[in-house]
Amino acid sequence: MENSNKKKTYLYKKHVNLGAKMVPYSGFIMPLQYKSSIIEHMNVRNIAGIFDISHMGNFFLKGKDSKNLIQILTTNDVSKIKIGQAQYNCMINDKGGIIDDLVIYKILETEFLLIVNAVNIEKNKKWITHHIKKYKCKYVELIDSSQEYSLLSVQGPQSLSRIKKLTNILLEEIDFYHFKIGEFAGIKNLLISRTGYTGSKGIEILIPNKYVEKVWDEIIGISNIIPCGIASRNSLRLEMGYRLYGNDISENITPIESGLSWIVKFNKKFIAREILKKQKIKGVEKKLISFMVNENGKIPRMGHPILNWNKSIIGEVTSGCFSPVLKKGIGLGYVNINKLKNPIYVLIREKYIFVTEVKLPFININNI
Question: Are residues 47 and 174 located together in one domain of the fold?
Answer without folding.
Answer: yes
